[in-house]
Amino acid sequence: MNRRSKGMFLSLAGVFVLVSSILILLPVPELYLLSLICMFVGVVLIGVGGAMVKEYDNNLDEPDEDCYYCNGMGRIEGPDGFETCPRCGGTGLARSDD
């Protein structure tokens, strides 16, 4: 099962939980708090499932800001001692195309 089908399943499950909590649990006065909790869970499931379907959740990974070649030091050890990192130019920061 791929991410899009899992997201669609979560969205449909969220719609089912939301609608059933509104139509079944909300009219019963003793289950009012449970109904509110179920509505919240349903809305969260719809949101998470929609993000998975639209593939917005893949953009949430934070990129590493340190240069992978020198580990953010700006210098690497060469045959004659320490040299400026050729990947980042000595800044220690990752390039935008990394």
Protein model, in words:
This protein has 98 residues and is mainly alpha-helical. It has two helices and two strands; from the N terminus they run ααββ. It has helices spanning 3-25, 32-54, and strands at 75-78, 81-84. It has a two-stranded antiparallel sheet. The protein is rod-shaped and about 80 Å long. The mean pLDDT is 86.
* Structural class by helix and strand composition: mainly alpha
Q: List the strand order in the largest sheet.
A: 1-2
First and last CA, distance: 30 Å
Percentage of residues in DSSP E strands: 5-15%
Biggest sheet layout? 2 strands, antiparallel
Approximately how much helix is present in the residues?
Answer: 40-55%
How many distinct helices? Answer: 2
Mean pLDDT: 86
Residue stretches low in confidence (pLDDT < 50, at least 5 long) are: none
SSE pattern, N- to C-terminal? HHEE
**How many extended strands?**
2
Q: Per the principal axes of the C-alpha atoms, what is the gross shape?
A: rod-shaped
Computed CA radius of gyration, to the nearest angstrom: 25 Å
